[in-house]
Amino acid sequence: MLTFSHLILGLFQALLLLAAAPLVSGLSRMVRAKLHTRHGPGLLQDYRDIAKLLTRQDLTPPNSGFAFRSMPAVMLTTVLVIATGIPMLTRFTPVAPIGDLITVIYLFALARFFFSLSGIDSGSSFSGIGGSRELTMGVLVEPVMLLSLFVAALLAGSTNLGAIGSAIADGHVRSATATVIAALSFAYAIYIELGKLPYDMAEAEQELQEGPLTEYSGPSLALIKWAMALKQTVVVAWFVGVFLPFGSAPEMTVFGLLFGLVAFAIKLVLIFAAVGVVENSVARVRFRLTPQHSWVGVGAASLAFVFYLVGL
Amino acid sequence: MNGFLIVNGLSGLLIVSSLLVTLAGNPANSARFYALQSFILVMLFVALAGATGSGELYLWSFTALLTKVILVPAIMYRAFRRLSDPAIGTGAVMPTALSIVGAAVALILCFVVASKVTLPAADAIKPALAVSLALFFIGLACIVAQRNILKQVFGYCLMENGSHLTLALLAPNAPELVEIGIATDAIFAVVVMAALGSRIFDTLHTLDARQLTSLKG
């Protein structure tokens, strides 16, 4: 049921995340600096970076076309659209048509598709290889994501993210073991999607893994950096909304929303702090070995599916 | 009815812990995970005793706590801790992901078999019965698809846990004597196998089952 207040709530939480995203990425940078025992940038450094880039000149390679120019806007808006549909402050999805797991997965795939397409479209061979690396990563992560979410959807009896979250929060899922395994494998997929070590490094735009960024400059680069920070936040919010919905508001009341906001902020900070610790205590894994790791995720998700089938 | 739900839920954890035992990096870690699995098994016995009202099962869970959670893992941990063969790696023949999928497939097949069982006692606990069968086959697979002879001992232990669970599920009122028979059997088997493993390592300096092709000493 989509009412006007739901729409407003969806827009509010999307804009809230958009405003908070550089803060979250600033937090990971701060955690990394602390773990390296160096001074490091301040918490607001990413706001300053984006503001500086927005005032610079936007240069495009002569051979680039439509996909290259539209990618920053497409990526940012796609992630914003996803953010309106994910249950964050509330148990239910604010904009129900978007808060469906299949829609969300495809919207993420759309953002990824444009990201790697822009790499190929820029005309630089280095960017092109970076783009294909990004797609390979997607092929490896998405099966884990799909399978674990499908298990959760089967257990809850709905593909709506809010319905899955409320079923888990109320303990209405049939199998606790299957839910926990599905949650763990989904968390693993989310971790790869975050673009952190040992699989990726979202900030390393000089390297192959963020190759599509090579040719961007000025406001476009600012938008992409902002979109990537937003994507990390939204992806974690997705996990929180589905598998850790505790503390969010079951009804739409002012007090409930405020409490939900506080609970959501605490969960977000805790998860990013934990991710920061993991990220800085591992070495980078060779890309050739990534499939072996991600297949373990597929195995765990299929085990969760079997647990659901057997009724454990 | 609720008690049987707990039994089924705990049996799911048995599958997870058996995979941890099988996939652990070295035998000492496997011993820790095996203690964890036995502890889950003991809790399952207690839950089952509460659900069926069987007094014997409480006694079973107590002896299982002594033998399987404390004694057998301690023996294996002490014996296996000092034996290491870097050349063998984890010793697994199959990739990790394939082992997990294999366990899932085994569980499905066992569930198909268990759903054919028409005993009135087995109605509420069919998932747990499927797990007990699957546990047996995971143990068997651990013996077959593992080159490290110490990890193969854990395969035997998993099979033994599986058959123990089957017995508890289908005959919760069996006398304590049966339990003692199973428990002592397992302890002596593990002691003998641990001694054999140590002797093999001392003589041949390898833990790889494929290297054991000649008689020595």
Automatic annotation (TrEMBL), chain B:
GO CC, alphabetical: plasma membrane
Membrane-spanning residues: 6-26, 33-51, 57-80, 92-115, 127-146
Pfam families cross-referenced by the UniProt entry: Oxidored_q2
Protein name, per record: Hydrogenase 4 membrane subunit
InterPro entries in alphabetical order: HyfE-like (IPR038730), NUOK/Mnh_C1-like (IPR039428)
Keywords: Cell membrane, Membrane, Plasmid, Transmembrane, Transmembrane helix
Record carries keyword Transport: no
Membrane topology recorded in Swiss-Prot or TrEMBL: Multi-pass membrane protein
Gene (UniProt): hyfE
Organism: Azospirillum humicireducens
Subcellular location field: Cell membrane
